[in-house]
Amino acid sequence: MEIFYFTGTGSGSYKWRTGIPAKYLERRGHTVRTYKPHAGGTVPDAIVFSRSYHVDVRRLFGWCKQHQVRVVYDTDDAIDLIPRENVAHYLTGQEQLDAAEFMLKHADVVTTTTPELAVHLRSRNPNVVVIPNSVDPEEWQSLPREKRARRRLGWTGGATHFLDLAVTLDAIADLQRKHDFEFVIQGITDLPSVRELYDGAFLAHGRSFRETPVGRAIKVFLDKTARIKYQFHPHVAVEAHAAKICELGLDIGIAPLAEDAFNRHKSCIKFYEYAMAGAVTVASNVIPYATEVSLTCRNTFRHWKEGLESVLDADLCAIWRQQHDWVLSCRNIQNTVSLWEEALTGGEQDRLYAEQPVPCLTSSYEASVLN
């Protein structure tokens, strides 16, 4: 079949929901094109719309219906629940929210990342199917780290996670007083430091920026990291991201997540990346991580401190092997590409497919809460 993805390129969302699936759909014999706004092309069998757009998609939806093109709407976030502390809140205007709502309601099928997000979306479209984010094993060097005198503990992520990372920073500051380990932060900005990001926003928007929810969130991050010794690695282009995470050489990757309505609809991408790069994941004991990650901490100073302390002293090879093997079995695009194929093909399978559970959830994966 011929599949058009109506999307831009360069974002993490594009990578996980378009770039990786498209590569493996082509290997299964399908013709896949990236269908950018205002580009021409032949009539496809299916067209995949993503998240939201700055352009009006209603006419294109009508064209698809007129030409009997199957319409798929894919989203990996509950964009109607983005909190004001998240910079994405200000990048997603009402026009985009209205377009997303229209696509969600009028698509033939909606594809998304987790059962939790599927439940949220089904209030507007009953035909929602779960296709989990899945790694491309060809991008990663899955090598466990040999035990060394100084552990490398780190976090990687975008500029939407200041308050999430802040969940564990006090515990890390306290641990550095007693334990000799390296702490790494990667991402957030392509500037040399988060301080420069904050100062640049202050110059651009004036003193009022300090009192915005985003400004306050960045200030919390800066105040807490001022007490920590850490290496900072700027954001890299999406095509270089996997190699960068491997290059960091982490022994332990942390995935703290504040518990709120928006976050509980996210997926466990950090876990997948850490596992594929050779690092053991320790995550917040909140959805989504509580459903997939074997080592989690409650979101308190004591629990994160004691949990990380126990992992810093542990033999990580066996833990990493368990986590890595689970990701490679259950979140591997080579295994899950067939779910994309079914959703894009559609027909009478839609209803039955939507009711089927996603394979390899925690019914077969024993998780433990640290402390």
Question: How would you sum up this structure, described in words?
Answer:
By secondary structure, the chain is an alpha/beta fold. The chain has 14 helices and 13 strands. The protein has a seven-stranded parallel beta sheet with strand order 9-8-7-10-11-12-13. The longest helix has 16 residues, at 12-27.
List the uncertain runs. 351-359, 361-365
- Proportion of β residues? 15-25%
Distance between the termini: 51 Å
Structural class: alpha/beta
Main sheet attributes: strand count, strand direction, barrel closure:
7 strands, parallel
The helix tally amounts to: 14
Q: Could you report the average pLDDT, rounded to the nearest whole number?
A: 89
Instruction: Provide the spatial order of strands within the biggest beta sheet.
Output: 9-8-7-10-11-12-13
Helix/strand order, N-terminal first: EHEEHEHHEHEEHEHHEHEHEEHHHHE
Q: What's the gyration radius in Å? A: 21 Å
Oligomer: single chain
Helix proportion of residues, in percent? 40-55%
Described by the principal axes of the CA atoms, the overall outline is globular
- The total strand number stands at 13
Layout of secondary structure:
Elements (H helix, E strand, L loop, with lengths): L1 E5 L5 H16 L3 E4 L11 E5 L7 H9 L3 E5 L13 H4 L2 H13 L2 E4 L2 H7 L6 E3 L20 E7 L4 H14 L5 E7 L6 H12 L7 H13 L5 E4 L6 H8 L3 E4 L13 H9 L2 E5 L10 E3 L3 H12 L3 H15 L2 H13 L3 H7 L12 E3 L1
Parallel strand pairs: 1-2, 1-3, 3-4, 4-5, 5-6, 7-8, 7-10, 8-9, 10-11, 11-12, 12-13
Helix pairs in contact: 1-13, 6-8, 6-11, 7-8, 9-10, 10-12
